Prior knowledge:
Elements: E1 2-11, E2 14-24, H1 40-47, E3 55-60, E4 63-64, H2 83-104, E5 110-115, E6 121-135, H3 138-155, E7 159-171, E8 174-176, E9 184-198, H4 199-211, E10 215-221, H5 222-225, H6 237-245, E11 252-253, H7 269-272
Parallel strand pairs: 5-10
Antiparallel strand pairs: 1-2, 1-3, 3-4, 6-9, 7-8, 7-9, 7-11
Amino acid sequence: MLKIKNLKCGYGDIIAVQNISMNLKAGETLALTGPNGSGKTTFVMTVAGHIPQINGDISFFEKDKSHYNETLNFEIPDSLNNSLNFKIILNLLKENIRKIEKNLGFFLNNGNISIQSNSYQSILFSIKNIFDEKKLDKKVIANLVQSCIQKFYIDEQNLSIIHIIINKYVIDDKVYKYLPNNIKFKKIILEIEFICLDKNLINKLKKLFNECKINIRKIVSYDYAKKFSKNHTDDTMCLSAYKVLNGINQSEVYQEENIQKKQGIFDKIFNFFD
């Protein structure tokens, strides 16, 4: 059963919907209707736990969903390769994940994480190509970006690219902020910004979550994401990451998600009932 009481949701000071109360029993179907911009998506994303509610209660099967408002903060030491430190952090992470899974009533298999790190770097690249007259489309841009990524990793083997932003398109000497549609061109220059974090740190985090049977689909740099929030506090860390993952920066391009097949139930069942 889904129970909602006096729910208010939105983004920061912007209230999308409020005073929503309902009970939805197993097997029942609910149709949510309304004009564009009326708050349907925000409501659904809040109930699903992707956006923290501003006020009100949400529960599934009599289990409170307020944990969605919590942020789990972990300080990863530089000596994480040390077996003792790794085990301490791993046990702490497993304990918190088990609490969340028990509260939810199902297992977590994939997730996104937001990282705040001193290794944050912004690196600018430029790539130029000349063609016989050619129609501009996303495939052309994707190939150029991929070439730029390959060149980047030749020079920067200790960094991982977390975000890719195309700051400028120069097409036949004309400057565009966003990719123009339905034009033909001969010369193109892309000015690309790579937001990077230390590769060793990323590998450590992936290893930690892999030990918990959770696949990391996307990583967000909090130092980058906080640019899109009014209040730069830990309370907005998840919301900032959510905005980035849902395309708040129209100049950012996304690599394919790394989606892992769900873990078998027996991989987690014993931890779940500890």
